[in-house]
From TrEMBL:
This is ATPase. It comes from the Bacteria. Residues 52-182 form the ATPase AAA-3 domain. Residues 259-326 form the ChlI/MoxR AAA lid domain. InterPro entries: ATPase_AAA-3 (IPR011703), CbbQ/NirQ/NorQ/GpvN (IPR050764), ChlI/MoxR_AAA_lid (IPR041628), P-loop_NTPase (IPR027417).
């Protein structure tokens, strides 16, 4: 037992030193982004836990600016793809084009070949394009013609969707939404933040410049450390209980939720909840996971993995309401 506590203490010290760059990144991004601390934190969790992020919010909430700033601060390649109904898979991944001088077909790489991809308004493009992007997210490789290309790490997809307009949109199927580690819903800034935003945007251009403070190789090292963060068996059991409560609520004295849930979280929910909790602990410069870490990331990991029945929608019950009930009912270790 003593040996284990010594190991955890050592790990804690290593992680405390290795996670110092998180503060540097935050300082750089805060030069440009006002408020939206929650969104930036979730982007970092996605980055450290090797998971992609789906952002939902009305236009103008600095979604594009946040990921662009993060890419600049990490000295990584950024690519933005504006999804439209006439987009083709080749516009995203690339295609074979005929080179007349060489008398052969050559591969022309698409914008997906970058470290940070902003898939703007992903629900505007047809299913074919969505699945081309999702294949790249899952496999981290692209096939063009008969050649397969590995995507450069770190590779993070941030997809945005606008919850207001439904005309001319193609809803992401549940199985595809499940590939996103986090679904983050962002709201408006406060009055003070908005005042700050106005002032910042009226300053002379080019005054706030983001400097690269971290290398992509440091991020890859940090990812390895995130997986080493200690997770006690009790915390693992807590994660399993939270996920199982979405599948069989009656086992957790939540029988009233049964008619509201169409389907619960998949095993991917448990994996991502564990990984995101470890990344959150790492960002808090800790070498071990506490129940509060799990609760902090639970909504973002689970909200798109709990299916609602028509009855729930008729009663205006959201997946957040269901998750709140579950977190209140499941015993915290």
């Amino acid at each position: 037992m003593e040996n284990t506590s010594y190991d955890i203490r050592q790990l804690n010290e290593r992680i405390h030193q290795a996670s110092a760059f998180v503060d540097l990144l935050n300082m750089e991004i805060n030069k440009v982004i006002v408020g939206q601390k929650y969104m930036v934190e979730r982007l970092m969790i996605g980055l450290l836990a090797q998971g992609h992020v789906l952002l939902e919010g009305v236009p103008g909430l600095a979604k594009t600016l946040s990921i662009k700033s993060l890419a600049s601060a990490i000295n990584a390649r950024f690519s933005r793809i504006q999804f439209t109904p006439d987009l083709l898979p080749a516009d995203v991944v690339g295609t074979m084009i005929y080179n007349q001088q060489r008398n052969e077909f050559v591969v022309r790489r698409g914008p997906i070949f970058a470290n940070f991809i902003l898939a703007d308004e992903i629900n505007r493009a047809p299913a074919k394009v969505q699945s081309a992007l999702l294949e790249a997210m899952q496999e981290r490789q692209i096939t063009i013609g008969d050649s397969t290309f590995k995507l450069e790490e770190p590779f993070l997809v941030l997809a945005t969707q606008n919850p207001i307009e439904q005309e001319g949109t193609y809803t992401l199927p549940e199985a595809q939404v499940d590939r996103f580690m986090l679904k983050v819903v962002i709201g408006y800034p406060t009055k003070d933040e908005e005042r700050h935003i106005i002032r910042q945007n009226l300053q002379p251009e080019g005054q706030t410049k983001i400097n690269p403070v971290v290398n992509p190789s440091e991020i890859l090292e940090a990812r390895k450390l995130v997986r080493e963060v200690y997770m006690d068996e009790k915390i693992e059991q807590y994660i399993i209980d939270v996920v199982f409560a979405t599948r069989n609520p009656e086992e957790y004295k939540l029988a009233k939720l049964k008619p509201l849930i169409a389907y619960g979280g998949s095993p991917r929910a448990s994996i991502n909840l564990a990984l995101a909790s470890k990344a959150y602990a790492f960002m808090k410069r800790r070498g071990y996971v506490i129940p509060e870490d799990v609760r902090s990331v639970c909504f973002d990991v689970m909200r798109h993995r709990v299916g609602l029945t028509y009855e729930a929608e008729a009663e205006n019950v959201t997946s957040e309401n269901i998750l709140s009930e579950i977190l209140n009912a499941v015993e915290v270790p």
